[in-house]
UniProtKB/TrEMBL annotation:
Matches recorded under Pfam families: Laminin_G_2 (PF02210)
Cellular localization per UniProt: Membrane
InterPro entries attached to this UniProt entry: ConA-like_dom_sf (IPR013320), EGF (IPR000742), FA58C (IPR000421), Fibrinogen-like_C (IPR036056), Fibrinogen_a/b/g_C_dom (IPR002181), Laminin_G (IPR001791), Neurexin-related_CASP (IPR050372)
Keyword Transmembrane: yes
Gene Ontology cellular-component terms listed: membrane
Predominant location: membrane
Protein family per UniProt: Belongs to the neurexin family.
SMART domains (UniProt xref): EGF (SM00181), LamG (SM00282)
Keyword ATP-binding recorded: no
Keyword annotations of the record: Disulfide bond, EGF-like domain, Membrane, Repeat, Signal, Transmembrane, Transmembrane helix
Membrane-related topology note: Single-pass type I membrane protein
Name of the protein in question: Contactin-associated protein-like 5
Domain EGF-like, chain residue ranges per copy: 424-461, 817-855
Length: 1152
């Protein structure tokens, strides 16, 4: 026989004669011992004898019957104490009852009670507002305390600090009220309140059960009562603990448990059934019986946490419901009776519910409690689930049912029941739901409601927010307010910060309550000016944020006039600031800690070199000691003190900027292991109840241990067990658990792979890359705590910062390059990923977008008079105007390609959006026609008509953002229009000329032509000789705002995309289109610009209803001759002109 007691195993006897003794090495204290035989002896009879020997124990017991109490009267009128120690043990028959009560006239009170099976302590010190208030708040402990087992209670109070301990659980709290002493008048009552109408009392139900060893500040109250001392009044209290004959039975299975009892003879017509039940399940059958008038049945069940009685007949099923949340784990009394033509059910003290019958009712021969047999005897069938819970005090027709006889097989029948005990457990105590998650439970498990907590998962363990602004950048975020959780799944909650992602360093900005300049006058060292700063994050969150950042800084703007920072005689500080730990700091503006100097001393530019701060010169004019504090261990500034502004004309002006931090130590926290014996070790992993482990890895070896931590018998391990399998294994005392994820491709491919493992008391999971999640639910009623005692090893077969530890470990180096090669989604929109030892940066120079990840829109707003010209100086050697097609030209055109992308938003039509033209007067034009429809024009030869494509007849001049993508490869052109439609064709050359004459009014965003981003270059290089800006040009955020508008209104907008190859019916025309850019030597890209100088020359002719093609060709030839002449006398030069300009420039510049 093996008996499992806690974590100790004891060997029992192997025959009927021998006696086995075991002595414990240390004494234990237990509320009860339970022995559960696991199997019969195959060669003998059933038998068990156990003797437990304890230590000498003094017990003074008082029995309270629900109407009795003990009063301890003071020798004086009132008792005032600053320290109290109250201890007792109790066991209760009921879930309600007062254990202790005392109060004073000034508003003090103390009440210890049982309420709904929980221990509640109400304590108030000198707060009259709470005396008559209904908003008293109790400190509660425990659950299901009406279990008839002994529970110990200890109350320790010193001033306002209180410790409440019940069994092994302690709760610390601080009392409400203004005083430090508890003043109680006349007496303390135990077990009840003898005067229910006494002012200040709010619970009148007395305690029903036993209290043992009751001590109040060292006084044995029960001993005084037993000796009948005059200061004790005992009302109906006996001094022995009675044992009630309450035999309970537990229904173990929600599918197969049942108890069948015979229906006894009733003294009158009808029948009556009474019993008590308790459960956590919201559904379950309580009682079912076949009526004498078949096929009628009567069912009493719990349905959706309510009690429901149903009368089943062949035609109807009348039902009534009563009660709310009867699955609260408390005992509930229910009675069911029939009399005459009515069936009545009553729950606790609630009003009865009745069903009317058509005939007299008599119960059948058997009543089924808790469920029905699987054989469907007499039509008994579980409506949903069988009952899981406890029942007691069952009586049928006023005759109590002896459950001991049922267990002995002498009465009724049963299956999967446990007798003489109620096996209910409160699975929400302790509450395993983290971060404020609400716990609910069923009989077998618990659930966590994480709504509004900012966390998710089975136990609300995983934060839904990123840990830093750097992490948001990696997910593609742009500047804005974000909620960050600096300690991830740790105890700290999320806080809102501003993430500035406009630079390569992503800055986290935390503001406080006083960011405006403040003027200070009239302060002295004895009565200084003090300002405390309250940040948008708690001090604990700030410490975690600062600790996880690479660098932090905070600007201190300090101006002064006849106000010194330090005393000129002995250097005593007259002003200072306080750091995050509450320490006084006297260095200012960037200087090192411990040095009483300012930034001007560091820079050697103080106005008076005899002093280390400008303010210490003590002049009548304003001086400045502004600087930046960058020693992050002292940040942020929590308080500033100014003490020298009381002299005539003396004043100071200060402003403390927000806390700004950049970098995230955990993001690029990498280490490389290049020896088989290399490893890192850290302190023991603190993961008793929950732990989550995540990291990226890449390797070329077929197997290896990522992480391991051992205990005496427990362990946790993550490893690559084969080239394509990752395993997560652990043991918390229930035997090893292994989760494995198998990949369809090898994982030792020198590419980055993501791994995340989590273990909680509820479940375990393993996730690798985008493979399906491997999940395993933890068994109920088993060991929960993972107990580890060795070091945590990383990279060795047997969380802090691996990169820091790697600096000191042989065979391990800091960083692990290869981030860019392992992911294509780090830099967007043609951005180029540049590898660094600990991370990467995005080069957006060839992208039309900006920002750290090349995802931020670059937009410009134009009016009619504004224009931008950008000149490209690229010496191409093949710029020629070919008047006839050759086979080599055809092959060249087949290989040529261009990519054009841009976004626009306007209300103007017609309008020129984009043109590309060459010295040979070939061009591509993207315009809005007079009706606002989009048209794409290709013109290659002056002796042929241009090819025109119109993707949609609808107007795009609708003040909405539209994105255009044009891609040509060889003879095929692909067009993608967001908000677009199918592709059609158009004509009329005058549309291009009309659009060119009107220019463009609106916003253009993210313009890209092959590897060039002209609009972005204009904004970033305004001082360059290649850029000419005329008129009013305004940088805009129309692209970003339009994205946000679409994001917030996706449910109401239908976005269609038209995308496909364009092929002309004529082969010759296809060849012409294919050669548009292959013959280009100098390319001019114009966004929202005048079409070309030759289009401008035809503005007068556009007044007519039509333009003759012959005139158009003549002007193109004239323009070409001028450009050819210029090409011969100057260096190759291409210019980009954006938007319309009312003034023509000379013939050497090219307008688009």
């Amino acid at each position: 026989i093996i008996i499992d007691l806690a974590r100790h195993l004891f060997v029992g006897n192997v025959n009927a004669d021998s006696v086995i003794h075991h002595k414990l090495s240390h004494p234990i204290r237990s509320r009860f011992l339970r022995f559960v035989p696991l199997d019969w002896n195959p060669s003998g009879w059933v038998g068990l004898r156990v003797e437990v020997y304890g230590c000498a124990y003094k017990s003074d017991v008082a029995d309270f019957d629900g109407r009795s109490s003990l009063l301890y009267r003071f020798n004086q009128k009132s008792m005032s104490t600053v320290k109290d120690v109250i201890s007792l043990r109790f066991k209760s028959h009921q879930a309600e009852g007062v254990l202790l009560h005392g109060e004073g006239q000034r508003g003090d009170y103390i009440t210890l009670e049982l309420h709904r099976g929980r221990l509640a302590l109400y304590l108030n010190l000198d707060d009259t507002r709470l005396r008559f208030s209904s908003g008293r708040v109790a400190v509660t402990l425990g659950s299901l305390l009406d279990d008839q087992h002994w529970h110990s209670v200890l109350i320790e109070r010193f001033n306002k600090q209180v410790n409440l301990t019940m069994d092994t659980h302690t709760q610390h709290f601080r009392t409400k009220g203004e005083g430090d002493s508890l003043e109680v008048d006349y007496e303390l009552s135990f077990g009840g309140i003898p005067l229910p109408g006494k002012p200040g009392t709010f619970l009148r139900k007395n305690f029903h059960g036993c209290i043992e060893n009751l001590y109040y500040n060292g006084i044995n109250i029960i001993d005084l009562a037993k000796r009948r001392k005059p200061q004790i009044y005992s009302g109906n209290v006996t001094f022995s603990c009675s044992e009630p004959q309450l035999v309970s039975t537990t229904f173990l299975s929600s599918s197969s448990s049942f108890l069948s009892l015979p229906a006894t003879q009733s003294a009158s017509e009808g029948f009556a059934v009474r019993f008590q039940f308790r459960t956590w399940n919201p559904d379950g059958l309580l009682l079912s019986t076949q009526l004498a008038l078949e096929p009628q049945r009567l069912e009493l069940q719990i349905s959706n946490s309510r009690l429901r009685l149903t009368h089943h007949t062949s035609k109807t099923h009348p039902a009534v419901s009563t009660g709310h949340r009867v699955n609260d784990g408390l005992w509930h009394s229910v009675s069911l009776s029939s009399q005459g033509l009515q069936v009545t059910t009553t729950l606790d003290n609630e009003p009865s519910s009745t069903i009317e019958l058509g005939d007299h009712m008599e119960a059948g021969n058997s009543l089924y409690f808790g469920g029905c047999p699987s054989l469907n005897i007499l039509g008994c069938k579980n409506p949903t689930l069988a009952f899981q819970g406890c029942m007691r005090l069952i009586s049928i027709n006023s005759q109590p049912m002896d459950l001991n006889r049922v267990q002995q097989g002498r009465l009724g029948n049963y299956r999967e029941l446990q007798f003489d005990t109620c096996g209910i457990h409160d699975r929400c105590l302790p509450n395993f739901c983290e971060h404020g998650g609400q716990c609910s439970q069923s009989w077998n498990t618990f659930y966590c409601d994480c709504s509004g907590t900012g966390y998710t998962g089975a136990t609300c363990h995983n934060s839904i927010y990123e840990a830093s602004c750097e992490a948001y950048r990696l997910t593609g975020g742009s500047s804005g307010f974000f909620s960050v959780d600096p300690d991830g799944s740790g105890p700290l909650g999320p806080t809102q910060v501003y993430c500035n992602m406009t630079e390569y360093k992503v800055w986290t900005v935390v503001t406080h309550n006083s960011t405006d300049p403040v003027r200070v006058q009239g302060s002295t060292l004895q009565k200084p000016y003090v300002m405390k700063f309250n940040y948008s994050a708690s001090p604990e969150q700030l410490m975690a944020l600062v600790a996880g950042s690479e660098q932090c800084r905070q600007e201190v703007m300090y101006g002064c006039r006849k106000s010194r920072l330090f005393n000129t005689r002995d250097g005593t500080p007259l002003s200072w600031w306080v750091d995050q730990g509450g320490e006084r700091r006297t260095y200012w503006g960037g200087f090192l800690p411990g040095v009483q100097q300012c930034s001007c001393s560091l820079e050697e530019n103080c106005m008076d070199m005899n002093y280390f701060c400008n303010c210490d010169a003590d002049t009548d004019s304003w001086a400045n000691d502004t600087g930046v504090l960058s020693y992050k261990e002292h940040l942020p500034v929590s308080e500033i003190v100014i003490g020298d502004t009381n002299r005539t004309g003396s004043e100071a002006l200060y402003r403390i900027g927000p806390l700004r931090c950049y970098g995230d130590k955990s993001v690029w926290n990498a280490a490389s292991f290049y020896q088989e014996s290399s490893y890192l070790h850290f302190p023991t992993l603190q993961a008793e109840l929950s732990a989550d482990i995540s990291f990226y890895f890449k390797t070329s070896i077929p197997s290896g241990v990522f992480l391991e931590n051992l205990g005496l018998k427990h362990f946790i391990r993550l490893e690559l067990s084969s080239p394509s399998v990752v395993t997560f294994s652990f043991d918390v005392g229930n035997g090893p658990v292994v989760l494995a994820v198998k990949s369809h491709v090898p994982l030792n491919d020198r590419q980055w792979h993501y791994l995340r493992a989590e273990r909680s008391v509820k479940e375990a999971s393993l996730h690798v890359d985008q493979l399906p999640l491997r999940f395993l639910e933890a068994p109920s009623d088993r060991h929960l705590r993972l107990r580890l005692n060795s070091q945590l090893f990383v990279g060795r077969d047997s969380v802090n910062s691996p990169s820091e530890r790697a600096k000191m470990t042989p065979g391990v180096s800091v960083g692990c390059p290869g981030h860019c090669s392992s992911s294509s989604s780090l830099c967007h929109n043609r951005g180029r990923c540049i590898e660094k030892n600990s991370g990467y940066v995005c080069d957006c120079s060839q992208s039309a977008y900006g920002g750290p990840s090349c995802k931020e829109e670059v937009s410009v707003s134009f009016d009619r008079e504004s224009s931008v010209t950008y000149t490209f100086q690229e010496p191409f050697s093949v710029m020629q105007n070919r008047s006839s097609k050759t086979s080599s030209d055809y092959r060249e055109s087949s290989r040529a390609r261009e990519n054009i992308a841009f976004s626009f938003m306007t209300t103007q039509s017609p309008a020129m959006l984009l043109t590309v033209n060459t010295f040979s007067q070939q061009y591509i034009a993207v315009i809005l026609a007079r009706n606002g429809s989009l048209q794409i024009w290709y013109s290659i030869h002056v002796d042929r008509k241009p090819d025109v494509f119109s993707p949609s007849p609808s107007s795009l001049a609708d003040r909405r953002l539209h994105r255009i993508r044009i891609h040509r490869q060889g003879k095929d052109v692909y067009l993608q229009v967001k908000e677009g439609d199918v592709l059609t064709y158009g004509m009329l050359i005058f549309e291009v000329m009309r659009a060119g004459s009107k220019g463009f009014i609106g916003c253009l965003s993210s313009v890209q032509f092959n590897h060039m981003a002209p609009l972005k270059a204009v904004l970033l290089n305004r001082g360059s000789s290649l850029v000419t800006v005329r008129g009013h040009l305004v940088e805009s955020n129309c692209g970003t705002l339009a994205d946000l508008t679409i994001l917030h209104s996706q449910s109401g907008i239908t976005v269609s995309r038209g995308k496909g190859p364009l092929r002309k019916a004529s082969k010759n025309n296809s060849v012409v289109i294919g050669g548009v850019v292959s013959a280009v030597v100098f390319i001019t890209l114009c966004v929202v610009a005048v079409m070309a100088r030759f289009l401008y020359q035809h503005r007068e002719a556009q007044r007519d209803a039509s333009i003759k093609e012959k005139e158009h060709r003549h002007n193109l030839e004239t323009a070409y001759r001028r450009e050819t002449a210029y090409q011969a006398e100057s260096a190759y030069r291409t210019e980009l002109h954006l938007h319309h300009s009312s003034t023509l420039r000379d013939n050497r510049e090219y307008y688009i």
